[in-house]
């Protein structure tokens, strides 16, 4: 353990405050009576430590089986980021949907609301379908599994090839949906509300709600997985 002149519990508290309120390192340094650089070092150290501990847990094995129709419920969410200076990074992180620069991540829960999977971050320009294919979640699914998602996910070849069934709300075919399609849409929406709540809770942490500073870009994979 590095020696930072303040107790371990205060180091952890500093890190949690940074997650919750996203205060500047300068403010944290004043509160804990340490140097600004030390506050940053503590935050980086504890973020890596928490991430490494969480990575040893097999969350996928915690999914509920045979209790519901769906193995997982999927959703992608976007987190605003500072506009990078490099043109290639600007393009990679620009989200047409949000009309700003973002990171995207894929979240999967079971029908009991247990978080089973959180992907690494992707640039805002990457489609939901592509994130599913690149995230590694396809490898965890089995033939015959049912997956629930919203309209943002189109037919995903990688799931079809594995025999995984993707269920989404029906799209309009003409002026309006049929009664059966309306009922199906409502049923799917009632089940998807849990994943939306999970995402909404994670975004109560201001480090995910406010625009992510460029200096935090290298740590966002870890921060996302800790806070979800």
From TrEMBL:
GO molecular function terms noted in the UniProt entry: endonuclease activity; metal ion binding
Instruction: Enumerate the spans annotated as Transposase Helix-turn-helix domain.
Output: 6-55
Q: Keywords of this protein's UniProt record, alphabetized?
A: Endonuclease, Hydrolase, Metal-binding, Nuclease
Q: List the cofactors.
A: a divalent metal cation
- Domain DDE Tnp4 span(s) in chain numbering: 74-227
Asked if the record carries the keyword Metal-binding, the reply is yes
One Pfam match, by short name? Answer: DDE_Tnp_4
The protein depicted here goes by the name Putative dde superfamily endonuclease
Organism of this sequence? Aedes albopictus
């Amino acid at each position: 353990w590095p020696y930072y002149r303040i107790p371990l519990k205060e180091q952890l508290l500093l890190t949690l405050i940074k997650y919750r309120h996203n205060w500047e390192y300068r403010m944290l340094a004043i509160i804990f009576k340490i140097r600004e650089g030390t506050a940053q070092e503590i935050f980086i150290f504890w973020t890596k430590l928490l991430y490494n501990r969480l990575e040893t847990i097999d969350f996928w094995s915690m999914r509920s089986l045979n209790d519901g129709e769906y193995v997982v419920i999927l959703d992608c969410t976007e987190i605003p980021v500072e506009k990078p200076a490099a043109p290639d990074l600007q393009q990679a992180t620009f989200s047409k949907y949000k009309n700003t620069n973002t990171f995207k991540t894929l979240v999967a829960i079971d029908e009991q609301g247990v978080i089973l999977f959180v992907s690494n971050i992707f640039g805002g320009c990457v489609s939901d379908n592509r994130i599913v294919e690149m995230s590694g979640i396809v490898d965890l699914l089995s033939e015959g599994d049912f997956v629930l998602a919203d309209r943002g996910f189109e037919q995903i070849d990688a799931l079809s090839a594995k025999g995984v069934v993707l269920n989404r709300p029906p799209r309009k075919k003409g002026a309006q949906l049929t009664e059966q399609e309306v009922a199906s849409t409502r049923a799917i929406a009632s089940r998807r509300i849990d994943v939306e709540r999970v995402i909404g809770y994670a975004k109560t942490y201001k480090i995910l709600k406010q625009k992510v500073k460029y200096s935090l870009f290298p740590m966002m994979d870890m921060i996302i997985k800790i806070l979800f």
